[in-house]
């Protein structure tokens, strides 16, 4: 994540950062992963402003709570360490707003491009092992926060956090397999892969809704009733 001063010309700085990233990518054959997320400092302060168009170009503004959790949980700065101390932890309401806006954007993109939406839905139902692994690990990060109120933004540490604080998570066995596939892939067997696919269909896709998904469904229902 890149954070620019409130006094800076945001668009100009963003363009400069993207140009530098592209130069590095060309010189390293894209071997160095560099985030293309750019915030102006004020965008990370409460209360978050939501007066922006709901498009893919503004997804970084939708994702603010998640990015801030990453910064506070495991962020390492190359320059500007003092910035971290000025950033407040996202609230439960911030996370709820993130989920609501993400849900709205997904539905909008489906409407704008039904063919893409159909492919996306099919991919979610029958993902590749790589996408399945990423999906389960990422969902575990979210569910850990939703159920415990604690933050963990590390895909490596999430398994130990869940085993300690959330041992009754419905898809814990699948999480263990995905963690194994992500961090010790050489130990995976064909039986493990088959079990991952089976657990994804029978357990993960059928998992109980979190409090936040119930909130989204309630708000969507209220919005539809008002139309």
User: What is the number of helices?
Assistant: 10
Task: Name the average pLDDT.
Answer: 86
Radius of gyration: 19 Å
Estimate percent helicity: 55-70%
Largest sheet: 2 strands, parallel
Regions with little confidence, pLDDT below 50 for 5+ residues:
none
- N-to-C order of helices and strands: EHEHHHHHHHHH
What would your notes on this structure say?
The protein is an all-alpha fold and 227 residues long. It is built from 10 helices and 2 strands, in the order E-H-E-H-H-H-H-H-H-H-H-H. A two-stranded parallel sheet has the order 1-2. Strand 1, helix 1 and strand 2 form a beta-alpha-beta unit. 17% of the residues are buried. The model has no long low-confidence stretch (mean pLDDT 86).
Write the layout of secondary structure elements.
Elements: E1 2-4, H1 10-28, E2 38-40, H2 59-62, H3 64-74, H4 92-112, H5 114-125, H6 129-148, H7 158-165, H8 172-183, H9 190-204, H10 211-226
Parallel strand pairs: 1-2
Helix pairs in contact: 4-5, 4-10, 6-7, 6-8, 8-9
Short overview:
With 227 residues, this protein is mostly helical.
Essential attributes:
227 residues, mainly alpha, 10 helices, globular
């Amino acid at each position: 994540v890149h954070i620019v001063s409130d006094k800076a010309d945001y668009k100009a700085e963003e363009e400069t950062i993207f140009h530098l990233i592209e130069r590095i990518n060309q010189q390293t054959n894209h071997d160095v992963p560099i985030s293309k997320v750019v915030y102006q400092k004020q965008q990370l302060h409460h209360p978050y402003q939501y007066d922006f168009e709901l498009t893919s170009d503004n997804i970084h503004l939708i994702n603010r709570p998640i990015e801030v959790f990453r910064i506070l949980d495991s962020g390492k700065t190359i320059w500007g360490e003092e910035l971290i101390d000025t950033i407040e932890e996202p609230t439960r309401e911030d996370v709820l707003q993130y989920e609501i806006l993400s849900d709205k954007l997904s539905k909008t993109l489906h409407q704008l491009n039904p063919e893409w939406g159909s492919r996306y839905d099919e991919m979610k139902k029958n993902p590749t092992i790589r996408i399945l692994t990423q999906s389960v690990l990422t969902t575990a990060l979210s569910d850990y926060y939703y159920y415990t109120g604690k933050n963990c933004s590390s895909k490596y540490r999430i398994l130990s956090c869940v085993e300690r604080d959330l041992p009754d998570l419905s898809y814990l066995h699948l999480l263990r397999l995905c963690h194994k596939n992500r961090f010790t892939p050489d130990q995976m067997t064909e039986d493990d892969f088959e079990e991952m696919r089976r657990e994804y269909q029978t357990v993960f896709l059928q998992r109980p809704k979190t409090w936040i998904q119930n909130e989204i469904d309630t708000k969507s229902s209220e919005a539809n009733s008002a139309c």
